[in-house]
Amino acid sequence: MIDTLLRREFPFASLKLLASARSAGTVIDVRGESIPVLEATPEAFEGVDIALFSAGGDVSLRLAPEAVKRGALVIDNTSAYRMAPEVPLVVPEVNAHEIFNHHGIIANPNCSTIQMMVALYPIYQVYGIRRIVVSTYQAASGAGQRAIEELKQTAAAILTGESPTASVLPVSKLEKHYPLAFNVLPQIDVFEANGYTKEEMKMVNETHKILADSRIQVTPTAVRVPVVYGHSEAVYVETEKPFVLEDVKNLLANSPGLILQDDPANQIYPQPLQAAGEFPVFVGRVRKDLFVENGLSLWVVADNILKGAALNAVQIAEIWVRQEGVL
Ligand code: 2RA
Question: Which ipTM value was assigned to this complex?
């Protein structure tokens, strides 16, 4: 988050770093200035204009209202408020106007939904979308630093002939764990009663809320793959209106936040290793279904930590600052 603020040259006059009591006292160097990390208490939000929250849903539920009470605009990176009707759920390339309908809190969507929305919104606007079938290939970093460490440890164990042990993935709070190295785990977050995981249901519900269209039939399968940074998605859509493939490619090539990387003859297509550390969403392998009249397949890749989290939050803050002259 700090890195993104600096890379985007966000116009902050001062930066306050808040964390749990355990992390308070650490000093972080920002632009050559040593900034102490303070404990996140309700009073700590006094004088804060914009509060970027990314410390888990419980912390957001406890402290976001305190920050709002003290005059801050909260941009929340957790799932705590995403589906609350009075809280806008914003992907700036799609529904930036919602930023101005907030009541103190704006929610940042889940990473896998954000990149899919950036890629699909131009298509939705021009052709309409009836149905989305999406399979994700999600990086370990989506499950946190411990998951990254576990991926590296399990890979090292297998490569040296030891048996890998896992205690974090697929879901740290559950009892059963499986190694991710040289493996693929079709479970991200806990299962719901309908057989879908929470991550998959986020893709359904958040798509409906962001596009303000709950008629779209979304069928997701969310999968963790042994990649450190960068989520990939195989997205299949059925549009309402017929399309010409070249027109769709041109549309995607000229849409905000998107880079078209689609040149099969030269083996050009998005890859997480190349997308890691980058701000845009990359789209490629754009092709027409062989059998279904309005069927279209896409391959969508983005840095889940940047566009899927920090960058999207900072973009929301940028728009707010620009329009409101807050700072
Ligand atoms: C994941 N969706 O990749 C999560 C992170 N928000 O597990």
Answer: 0.96
